[in-house]
Recover the amino acids of this structure.
């Protein structure tokens, strides 16, 4: 997802900011979770733009999500009523999911 990569370009993780490999790993996973959250929210905004600027229905949001290649990362997240994701509610959940997942398919 282009929005996911854009997030990483705008918010690089600097290894020098970590005082140990474990701290760097934690920082990197949190950045990855935030990139997934940002990418979903951008995807939702794009879909709404293609919907003539109207909010998507619950069914449309569910269809959008089911067609998402990397939906595994969102397991257990807290969705807002409008379908968006807030980082404050979901970073830890996505970090746990990523930590338990095999290497992500980054085709």
């Amino acid at each position: 997802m282009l929005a996911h990569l854009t997030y990483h370009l705008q918010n690089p993780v600097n290894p020098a900011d970590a005082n140990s490999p474990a701290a760097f790993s934690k920082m990197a996973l949190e950045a990855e979770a935030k990139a997934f959250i940002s990418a979903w929210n951008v995807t939702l905004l794009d879909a709404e733009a293609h919907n003539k600027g109207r909010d998507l229905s619950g069914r449309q949001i569910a269809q959008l999500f089911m067609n998402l290649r990397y939906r595994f990362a969102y397991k257990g997240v807290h969705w807002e009523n409008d379908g968006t994701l807030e980082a404050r509610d979901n970073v830890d959940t996505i970090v746990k999911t990523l930590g338990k997942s095999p290497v992500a398919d980054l085709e």
